[in-house]
From TrEMBL:
<dbReference type="InterPro" id="IPR003080">
    <property type="entry name" value="GST_alpha"/>
</dbReference>
<feature type="domain" description="GST N-terminal">
    <location>
        <begin position="3"/>
        <end position="83"/>
    </location>
</feature>
<dbReference type="InterPro" id="IPR004046">
    <property type="entry name" value="GST_C"/>
</dbReference>
<feature type="domain" description="GST C-terminal">
    <location>
        <begin position="85"/>
        <end position="208"/>
    </location>
</feature>
<dbReference type="GO" id="GO:0004364">
    <property type="term" value="F:glutathione transferase activity"/>
</dbReference>
<dbReference type="InterPro" id="IPR036282">
    <property type="entry name" value="Glutathione-S-Trfase_C_sf"/>
</dbReference>
<dbReference type="InterPro" id="IPR050213">
    <property type="entry name" value="GST_superfamily"/>
</dbReference>
<dbReference type="InterPro" id="IPR010987">
    <property type="entry name" value="Glutathione-S-Trfase_C-like"/>
</dbReference>
<dbReference type="InterPro" id="IPR004045">
    <property type="entry name" value="Glutathione_S-Trfase_N"/>
</dbReference>
<protein>
    <recommendedName>
        <fullName>glutathione transferase</fullName>
        <ecNumber>2.5.1.18</ecNumber>
    </recommendedName>
</protein>
<dbReference type="InterPro" id="IPR040079">
    <property type="entry name" value="Glutathione_S-Trfase"/>
</dbReference>
<keyword id="KW-0808">Transferase</keyword>
<comment type="similarity">
    <text>Belongs to the GST superfamily. Alpha family.</text>
</comment>
<dbReference type="InterPro" id="IPR036249">
    <property type="entry name" value="Thioredoxin-like_sf"/>
</dbReference>
<dbReference type="GO" id="GO:0006749">
    <property type="term" value="P:glutathione metabolic process"/>
</dbReference>
<dbReference type="GO" id="GO:0006805">
    <property type="term" value="P:xenobiotic metabolic process"/>
</dbReference>
<dbReference type="Pfam" id="PF02798">
    <property type="entry name" value="GST_N"/>
</dbReference>
């Protein structure tokens, strides 16, 4: 046992990617065990490792944690990325929940059937540019600080950068109307632990390729 957190998921982004990002931003090394086929999930389910029979699952500090948000809450608290008081934490929760809503749309794009992709993409761009990015641009404008909350790095900054980069993969000029998000992106990308995670060869996962979709679906359905 190395003492490093061990992440159990398929070898792709999905619900595990924000967890990888947060650990990386906190400078925590982690190991991964990839589900390659349905049997791998069944094995974890049968040996009692998954409280609700679902992944992501993270072995950390003697626990087998499930539920993405619970895992992120734990890591953020442990590594001081969750604000310094109750009000900061409330703001972080609010922002991060909005990011989860947007992330759900971004993440599911690759899994849409061919005839639904165009509509899904248009809706995704609309929500990103007319609902979520204006909100985060306004937060930065209103307080004029470098980070979303409390003028120090928090999980909200890490998750927003992840989402910005994901949205740019679909539409490279998506930040065109958001000057403060552009400088936010440059600033947060330059934090040494994050810069390292953005280098080729890190544990960061690429977007899912169409030919990988059936394999992932076969694991879970
Ligand atoms: N609320 C859970 C949802 C987890 C979830 O839906 N996991 C999927 C994979 S991304 C899964 O394990 N599906 C198998 C199943 O539900 O039996 C979380 O956020 O962790």
């Amino acid at each position: 046992m190395s003492g490093k957190p061990k992440l159990h998921y398929f070898n792709g982004r999905g619900r595990m990617e924000p967890i990888r990002w947060l650990l990386a931003a906190a400078g925590v090394e982690f190991e991964e065990s990839y589900l390659e086929k349905k049997d791998d999930l069944t094995k974890l389910q049968k040996d009692g490792s998954l409280l609700f029979q679902q992944v992501p699952m993270v072995e950390i500090d003697g626990m087998k944690m499930v539920q993405t948000r619970a895992i992120l809450n734990y890591i953020a608290t442990k590594y001081n990325l969750y604000g310094k008081d109750l009000k900061e934490r409330a703001l972080i929760d609010m922002y991060v929940e909005g990011m989860f809503d947007l992330n759900e749309q971004l993440m599911s794009y690759g899994f849409q059937p061919a005839d639904k992709k165009e509509q899904h993409f248009a809706n995704m761009v609309d929500k990103t540019t007319n609902r979520y990015f204006p909100a985060f641009e306004k937060v930065l404008k209103d307080h004029g600080q470098d980070f979303l909350v409390g003028n120090q790095l928090s999980r909200a900054d890490v998750q927003l950068l992840e989402i910005i980069l994901m949205a740019e993969e679909g539409k490279p000029d998506i930040l065109a109307k958001f000057p403060l998000l552009q400088s936010f992106k440059a600033r947060i990308s330059n934090i040494p632990t994050i810069k390292k995670y953005l280098q080729p060869g890190s544990q960061r996962k690429p977007p899912i390729r169409p030919e990988e979709v059936p394999k992932v679906i076969a694991i879970f359905y």
